[in-house]
Amino acid sequence: MKLRPVDLVRLLNSSPLGQVIDERTLYRQRMRAGDRFCMGRRVDLLAYVAWLVGERHPEGRQRRARRSETVSSDAVRQMLRAQQYRCALSGRQLTPDSASLDHIVAISRGGEHRIENAQVLHKDVNRAKGAMGNEEFLALCREVVAWANRRVPTAKPEGSQTCAK
């Protein structure tokens, strides 16, 4: 059964238990789960229940606890050296104020918090990338550049004349 999020909240809260979820909580869960139980703007009730069970299961909690230990500051420093202190996508020079750790496959899309799924980006690039994957983001950047090149007339060199003498 696929429901709109607002209808799912109403359905779950109509039980004898009273209010069990609000729209904000469902939204946060949807962001964390990625596409695991959402199909566009609809929530698959059975997939949502399966996801909740997986989240609540003790084995799942242990997995999440271990995840935070998989990215150490030493590993990030080593990654920075390997990237020559440059953004992995734009090549911009990184400083302590501009560097930002990014998940190549976003956590919200099923990626893991592991060093193999991490890269250091310039914070502006990371903000623009959001939850997109690298290839998806680069494709978007190419589209933007192609459109901008079509829309912006080429500048004429200074001193050039447009009228015939």
Set out the fold topology.
Blueprint (H helix, E strand, L loop, with lengths): L1 E2 L1 H9 L9 H11 L4 E2 L2 E3 H12 L1 H10 L5 H10 L16 E5 L14 E5 H7 L4 H18 L14
Antiparallel strand pairs: 1-3, 2-3, 4-5
Report on the structure:
The protein is mainly α and 165 residues long. The longest helix is centred in the C-terminal third of the chain and has 18 residues, at 134-151. The chain folds into two domains: 2-56; 85-151, Orthogonal Bundle (DNA Binding (I), subunit A). It has helices spanning 5-13, 23-33, 45-56, 58-67, 73-82, 123-129, 134-151; strands at 2-3, 38-39, 42-44, 99-103, 118-122. It is flat and about 75 Å long.
Keywords for this structure?
mainly alpha, 165 residues, flat, 7 helices, DNA Binding (I), subunit A, two-stranded antiparallel ribbon
What is the H-and-E element order? EHHEEHHHEEHH
Total individual domains: 2
The main pleated sheet reads as: 3 strands, antiparallel
What's the total number of strands?
Answer: 5
The top-level CATH class of the largest domain is Mainly Alpha
Fill in the CATH topology of the largest domain. DNA Binding (I), subunit A
Beta content comes to 5-15%
Oligomerization: single chain
Number of helices: 7
Estimate the global geometry from the Cα principal axes: flat
Radius of gyration: 23 Å
Named at the architecture level, the CATH assignment of the largest domain is: Orthogonal Bundle
Poorly predicted regions: 65-69
**Straight-line N-to-C gap:** 75 Å
Helix content: 40-55%
Structural class: mainly alpha
Mean pLDDT over the residues: 82
Strand order of the largest sheet: 1-3-2
